[in-house]
């Protein structure tokens, strides 16, 4: 494991910690898209189905279980916690996330590495993760008040994917027998590109000490 892979994993984990910290300490999920969180539950369940068939390492297993468990916990808080659910911006979180799921599944059935259940679901999870942030970005554009924890959460999510791209580039040049896997590469580039506008305004607001907002 190289430094970019480890940094990507830790950044991803930190993003979840920041979100759970926001929800548990403030008893609020304002500014967080339930649609995006539900898509991440689907992503992790589809991607980590190999937990039932393969063992790689303690680190790998623990990280997979953490991502599955934390994503389900976040959705539970937003849907069922008697205080947190009252702060959910349901009237603004209106992006039809199911519109993203079916095309990603069809694409995975058409373009995959091997036509097996685990491989197709793994490919589907990559395609879906690439666009899962869409409802969240739409919600942020509609929100007048974006708190620091929400902004930091989304920034860390984008940084995690950017670090994974650096990990793949590093492996391409440093590992003699490393094979280019175009599906995660292209999906990762698309996902990172979706964050470009967010990164620009996030860094701009941080540099100018201004309140963070996305243009409508």
TrEMBL record:
Keyword list (alphabetical) reads: Endoplasmic reticulum, ER-Golgi transport, Membrane, Protein transport, Receptor, Transmembrane, Transmembrane helix, Transport
Offer an example of a GO molecular function term for this protein. ER retention sequence binding
Protein name per Swiss-Prot or TrEMBL: ER lumen protein-retaining receptor
Bilayer topology reads:
Multi-pass membrane protein
One GO cellular component, as annotated: endoplasmic reticulum membrane
Q: InterPro entries, from UniProt? A: ER_ret_rcpt
Q: Where in the cell is it found?
A: Endoplasmic reticulum membrane
Broad class of the protein's primary localization = endoplasmic reticulum
Tell me yes or no: is Ion transport among this UniProt entry's keywords.
no
* TM region positions: 55-77, 98-115, 121-140, 152-170, 182-203
BP GO annotations: protein retention in ER lumen; protein transport; vesicle-mediated transport
Q: Which family does it belong to?
A: Belongs to the ERD2 family.
Q: Which organism is it from?
A: Tetracentron sinense
């Amino acid at each position: 494991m190289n430094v970019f892979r480890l940094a990507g994993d830790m950044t991803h984990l930190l993003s979840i910690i920041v979100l759970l910290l926001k929800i548990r300490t403030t008893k609020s999920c304002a500014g967080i898209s339930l649609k995006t969180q539900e898509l991440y539950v689907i992503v992790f369940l589809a991607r980590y189905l190999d937990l039932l068939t393969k063992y790689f390492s303690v680190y790998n297993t623990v990280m997979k279980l953490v991502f599955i468990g934390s994503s389900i916990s976040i959705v539970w808080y937003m849907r069922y916690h008697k205080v947190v659910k009252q702060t959910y911006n349901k009237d603004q979180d209106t992006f039809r996330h199911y519109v993203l799921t079916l095309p990603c599944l069809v694409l995975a059935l058409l373009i995959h590495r091997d036509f097996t259940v685990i491989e197709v679901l793994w490919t589907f999870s990559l395609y879906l993760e690439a666009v899962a942030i869409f409802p969240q970005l739409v919600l942020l554009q509609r929100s007048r008040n974006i708190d620091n924890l929400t902004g930091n959460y989304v920034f860390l999510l984008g940084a995690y994917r950017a670090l994974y791209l650096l990990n793949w580039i590093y492996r391409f040049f440093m590992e003699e027998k490393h094979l280019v896997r175009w599906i995660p590469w292209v999906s990762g580039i698309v996902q990172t590109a979706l964050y470009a506008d967010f990164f620009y305004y996030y860094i701009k607001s941080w540099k100018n000490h201004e309140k963070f907002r996305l243009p409508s």
